[in-house]
Structures are given as C-alpha cells and as structure tokens.
Amino acid sequence: MVNYWGKIEKSKCKEIILNNFADRERKHFADYKRFTKNVEAEARRMRDRIDCLNRLREFQMREHELMQAQSVEPSETPVPDEKKKAFLEIIETIRKMVDSLQNINTLCNPINGEPHVNPGAHATDIDNLNSNREIIRNQVNAFRQLVADYNEEFSFQLSFLSQMDSILQGRILRSICLELQNVVDGGDSGRVKQYGEMAGLLLQQIDAFLFELDWNTRNPNVESEILPAEPPGDNNNTDI
C-alpha cells in the first residue's frame, strides 16, 4: 500500500525548508545591499570632507606663494601683504570651523547606529565651533576696515565674506553652537541626528562658497555664474 500521506508530508517539509532558505537568502541579500549602501554613503561623506579641506589648504598655499613671489628683490625675505595675510587668517579660522562641523556631522548623524548622547559628548567640537565663530566675526570686521580703500582689488574676497555672513549670522549655526549640547545631554538621539544633518548643510554651503572664491581668484577676468549671491534655502530656518 502506497503511503500517500507520508509523501505529502515530505513534500510539505521540503517546501517549507526551501521557503525558509529563500527567505534567509533574501534577508541576507537585503542586509548586504544595506551594508553596501551605508559604506558608499560614508565613503562619499569622507570624500566630501577631504575635498573641502583640500580646497582650503590649496587656497592657502597658493596665496602664500603669490605673496612670496611679489617680493621686490629675489634675495630679500618676502614681507607678507598685511591685507592678504589677514584674509588668510580668516581662511584658517574657517578651516577650523569646517573641521568641527564635519566632526559634528559625522558623529551626530552616523550612517550606522545611534549618536552618543551621554552628557558631555561632542562638547569639544561644539566649544571649538562656538569660539571660532566669535573669532571669525572679529577677523572679518577687521579685514573689512583694512581693505576699505581697496574694495575693487579685494572684491572676490569681500563677496566671499558676504556669503559667509549668511552662515555666521544664520540661525542654523547659532542653534548648533548654543542648543546642541543641551540636546545631547538630554539624550534625544533623534534630535541630535537633526543637528548633525544641519551641520552637513552648512558644510555644503561653505564648500560651494570656497569653490566660487577659488574659481574667481584663478580666473579673475572670467565672469562667474556658478552660484547665486545668496545660498539656496533659508539659513535662518532650522525646522526643529
């Protein structure tokens, strides 16, 4: 006598095993795709970070070389132009701000997992960002007074600083400097991530402004249509 019931049961078990195997494979593939996507996103963010810092360093190096080349006699020790030196000091402060913003963007809005929200986390970057924000304000005011009679010669630098004003005086940077530490100490990881995203938006704006400044100084006789006078969006809205 043929045991049809046994055959049916074996067939069902086989089907269940195959279905479970297929489900596991689909889950593993989805996990792998998610992992690959996260790795690519983190790599892209690191490339953006390196590109922005490299742009700052290249600009500083080129300006230093130009100042040295302007020495009257090759044998003389070059005396840096006071106005150009003052602008390079501003660029150095911006580099420090960019470094702090990139740390906040990476650590407060990680690709994987949750940000650290234990009391005091990220305090160093927030403090550095806040102090450099005050330093650059004073530097910008001093530079504008220094070049008051040289507006045409320093038109690109002054235009860049006007663009940076939208960030320095905007609500987003002020919120990061004055509110983020309280949010971190409060343990709200969701809001901490939002501040990390805000830092990323500021980095995009700063990098775009630097790109335009670099283009203009390299091509002083070519009209630039790369960016509008004001950054896209409203830097005074945080939506938090």
List keywords for this structure.
240 residues, mainly alpha
Assembly context of the chains: single chain
Individual helix count: 6
> How many beta-strand segments?
0
Cα radius of gyration in angstroms? 27 Å
Number of domains: 1
Query: How much helical structure, as a percent, in the residues?
Result: over 70%
Structural class: mainly alpha
Shape assignment: elongated
Write the element-wise H/E pattern from the N-terminal end onward. HHHHHH
The fraction of residues assigned to DSSP E strands is under 5%
Report the mean per-residue pLDDT as an integer: 78
Task: Describe the largest sheet.
Answer: none
Q: What is the first-to-last residue Cα distance? A: 75 Å
Uncertain regions: pLDDT < 50 for 5+ in a row?
A: 226-232
Keywords: Coiled coil
Question: How do the strands and helices of this protein lay out in sequence?
Answer:
Blueprint: H1 4-69, H2 82-108, H3 123-146, H4 155-168, H5 171-186, H6 189-218
Helix pairs in contact: 1-2, 1-6, 2-3, 2-6, 3-5, 4-6, 5-6
Keywords: Coiled coil
